[in-house]
Structures are given as structure tokens and as C-alpha cells.
Amino acid sequence: MATLEKLMKAFESLKSFQQQQQQQQQQQQQQQQQQQQQQQQQQQQQQQQQQQQQQQQQQQQQQQPPPPPPPPPPPPPPQLPQP
Predict the structure, then answer these.
(1) Where is this region: Disordered (predicted)?
(2) Residue 72, CB-side half-sphere exposure with 13 Å CA sphere
(3) H/E stretch holding 20
(4) How many percent of the chain have pLDDT more than 70?
């Protein structure tokens, strides 16, 4: 009978050990998921910032006044009638 008790105790300690490992794995998975979410959020923020910068640049380009028109060419000199 002693062997059976030893077996039962060993089995119980094994079960508790497995449960601890499962909890640790779950925690690690949660941490990894959180890190991935944070990275995705950071990437989205960077993309938004880039889009805002591009929009600002476009607005600045639109605000510049148009270039002045070129000056008109000078009139040709009057032709003197030939004698």
C-alpha cells in the first residue's frame, strides 16, 4: 500500500506542477500579445504622424502665391520708309 500512496503523492505533485507551468505559459502569451498590440499601436501612430506631415506639406505648397507672369516682349522698332 505504501507504494500506492507514494504514487498518488507523486501524481498530485505532478498535477500541481503542470498547472503552474500552464499558468506561466498563459501569462507569457498574454505579455506577448500585449507587446504586439503596443507595437501595432506605435506603428499606427507613426503612420498617422506621417500622413499629417504630408498633409501639412501639401497645405504649405497650396498657400504659396502663384509666380508673377513674365513681362511682355518689347514692341518692334518702327520701320522707316525707305526712300
Answers:
(1) 14-83
(2) 3
(3) helix 2-63
(4) 95
Q: How many other C-beta atoms lie within 10 A of the C-beta of residue 11?
A: 9
Residues belonging to the chain: 83
Q: Per-residue DSSP letters for 34-80?
A: HHHHHHHHHHHHHHHHHHHHHHHHHHHHHHSPPPPPPPPPPPPPPPP
Please give the Cα distance from 41 to 29 (Å, whole number): 18
Rounded Cα distance between 18 and 6, Å, is 18
pLDDT at 11 over 90: yes
Provide the CA 64 distance to its chain's centre, in angstroms: 31
Three cell numbers written together for 18: 503542470
| Cell (9 digits) for 48 | 498617422
Q: Coil, strand, or helix at residue 83?
A: coil
